[in-house]
Specification:
Two copies of one chain form a homodimer. Chain A is an alpha/beta fold and about 375 residues long. The first copy, chain A, contains 13 helices and 14 strands. In chain A, the strands form four sheets. The first copy, chain A, has a seven-stranded mixed β-sheet with strand order 2-10-9-8-7-3-4, sandwiched between helices. Chain A has a three-stranded antiparallel β-sheet with strand order 11-14-13. A two-stranded parallel ribbon of chain A has the order 1-12. In chain A, a hairpin with a 2-residue loop joins strand 5 and strand 6. The longest helix of chain A is centred in the C-terminal third of the chain and has 27 residues. Chain A is globular, with a radius of gyration of 21 Å. The two termini of chain A are about 40 Å apart. The relative contact order of chain A is 0.17. At the A-B interface, helix 1, helix 2, helix 3, helix 4 and helix 9 of A face helix 1, helix 2, helix 3, helix 4 and helix 9 of B.
């Protein structure tokens, strides 16, 4: 028998794989994290190893409130923050609290493919929201929500990644943000805003979170997976104090003394020490260079494609020429030594075979240029041309 | 506004509180954990900070298989192990997978009070199993399960802590273990065995787990909360390979790359280095001395009570004299500067007002002796005598 694996990532020799939304190994802050966890154990000693406060330890909550005051127009109060075991666990927790089996849940089109699976685990019906190249369409989404209500459906939750989105890399324009929170408020639907990529802003500040626009109607999920490291399983959310209290009263949150107490205290030290801010600045520079390399290479190799550079995050979303299939292209691409995720993975409904997601996060600039050359070769393989 | 809290524990000056099932602060392995997390980052470097294998990283799984081969008759194979974010999160996860709203779930009488809350969060009906002073009664529980089936109820799950139980400190006798797994197999009910206290065995080895007797019919939950520290939020379970695969396919497990990857790698180092075994040996000695101190003090101060010394774990379960109420005793006890949890917290049904749980885990021997003196004073307060 093979020994059990350590990592999720599976290397495929010969393939430059733009399918993985994983961090660049050399951009993970091993030294900064080592120093932070060491100092946290020195400062908090046994307090780091015992049961923590259910909503997350005060030192992390207080630093988070400061940091969010710098990266978003509205700083949360401490009682508006709940520390999670990562954004994925946050989606699991929030959707467990808000939904019942059989509910309708509206999701962006496209949206984070694994969030679709987390939500589907709740035995709800996932319904893709009307959207265009600017993102979710608030007006048409309002009509959808009202239609569902008239059909006596509960629609407790609307999920989207409005900022440097997975998979599109795009951010919802400001007027749509304001319209969307109004539409949700009018229909009594809670927006679950996945704000995982806020810190990875390459061309100026990230847009205001939906939560900052309507703190009463939005649960906003954040994460340290992209800013520090996904292996830590640490994230947070901002919501109303009443919703935070509801989460702290869940049996397993009370029984466990919060969701990742020791790691949260080490992160508080990483934040307060300035190491977090310094590291984020450094990885913005790196990931920006990777984005630039992929955008430039695609424009050189595939000049007929429209390449819209994302202003943050890890993903580039491409529309294929008319009649071309992402599934067919994927087979040809892998034969040419490059891979990606086909667009249909990111929709609740059958859609997206004319799209693909390229992740530039874990591939160096030179390899991204080579990936674009291999993609061009795949594009010109006759069998990939038509659906 | 008060700054947000760091810990779950709330100190009440003047009260020796035997209500908390928390570790002794000075028994938490701050130095051993510091060394282990430091070595893990040196050995695994960036691999500790990225997405982990969904079932938990191989190094921890392999060490766990060895350790369980030493403390239980059956060592799991690697594909029978899944790493959780603590036993509480394990109960949440397993009960989410196994149950549907409206199901009946059978629990021991008494059993871990916060597990009752975790299970109740699933919108199931909790039904206390027939039990006596030796623990759950397999024969009568079989009759209960068959009665529920005849009434067309689904009963997917039976929860208990059979070894050094919370709250009783007792272990289910071996013949009942064998009868119980047979009864559950016959009725198609999965036993969820909370095996949190296995490492805290004070008078010889712990009894065989139910999982070791019937690996096909039992999901056994373990934890590092009592052996290392609850703040780490790390545990594990053993189950069939098929059940482990089901868990790895949950959306948030896949999306997050396992449930607590970096912490799991540090624990693998703590295990392999021998620090885990050395630390467990040391805390067994300490907690054994605390148990002995409380048992001796109770026998001196309250000689009319039957005090059954637990062979492991953190809890002592007392039956009050006929007609005496734990709720009334608690009020008198707090006036005399001692506290505990009344027995009724530990039952799915109204019961247990003639019982109380004393935790000796976070109180030094001298204070345990004083606590017993204060309890005697409360016992002799006239108002506490009768319900």
């Amino acid at each position: 028998m093979q020994p059990p694996r350590t990592l999720q990532y599976v290397d495929r020799p010969g393939i430059i794989d733009l399918g993985w939304g994983h961090p660049m190994p050399s951009a993970l802050p091993v030294d900064a994290w080592r120093a932070s966890q060491e100092e946290a154990l020195r400062e908090y000693s046994w307090q780091a190893l015992t049961y923590g406060y259910e909503a997350g330890p005060g030192p992390l909550v207080e630093w988070l409130c400061e940091r969010l005051g710098e990266t978003d127009p509205r700083a949360p109060a401490p009682d508006e923050v709940f520390v999670t075991a990562g954004a994925s666990q946050g989606i699991e927790l929030v959707s467990t609290v808000l939904t019942r089996p059989g509910d309708a849940v509206v999701v962006d089109s496209p949206t984070y493919h694994l969030a679709l699976r987390i939500l589907a685990d709740r035995d709800v019906e996932l319904i893709g929201a009307p959207a265009d190249d600017d993102g979710i369409d608030p007006h048409a989404t309002g009509a959808l929500l009202r239609r569902l209500h008239r059909a006596s459906r509960r629609v407790p939750l609307l999920y989207l990644v409005p900022t440097f989105a997975n998979p599109t890399g795009r951010s919802l324009p400001d007027p749509r943000r304001r319209e969307l929170v109004e539409v949700a408020r009018d229909t009594g639907t809670t927006i679950v805003e996945d704000d995982t990529y806020r810190e990875l802003a390459y061309d100026g500040p990230a847009p205001p979170s939906l939560w900052s626009i309507d703190p009463a109607g939005v649960v906003r999920l954040g994460s340290f997976a992209k800013s520090v490291g996904p292996g830590l399983r640490l994230g947070w959310l901002t919501a109303t104090p009443a919703f935070v209290r509801t989460l702290t009263r869940r049996g397993f949150v009370d029984s466990g003394g919060g969701l990742n107490h020791a790691t949260a205290l080490a992160m508080a030290v990483m934040g307060r020490s300035g190491r977090f801010a310094g590291h984020v600045e450094a990885i913005r520079t790196r990931y920006r260079a990777q984005r630039d390399a992929l955008v430039a290479a695609l424009r050189t190799e595939l000049p007929a494609l429209v390449v819209t550079p994302p202003h943050g995050g890890w993903f580039l979303w491409l529309r294929l020429p008319d009649g071309m299939s992402a599934a067919a292209l994927l087979a040809a691409a892998e034969r040419h030594g490059v891979s990606f995720l086909p667009g249909n993975r990111f929709y609740a409904q059958p859609a997206g075979d004319d799209r693909l997601r390229l992740s530039y996060s874990m591939v160096e600039p030179a390899a991204l240029a080579e990936a674009a050359r291999r993609l061009r070769a795949a594009f010109t393989t006759p069998a990939t041309r038509y659906r």
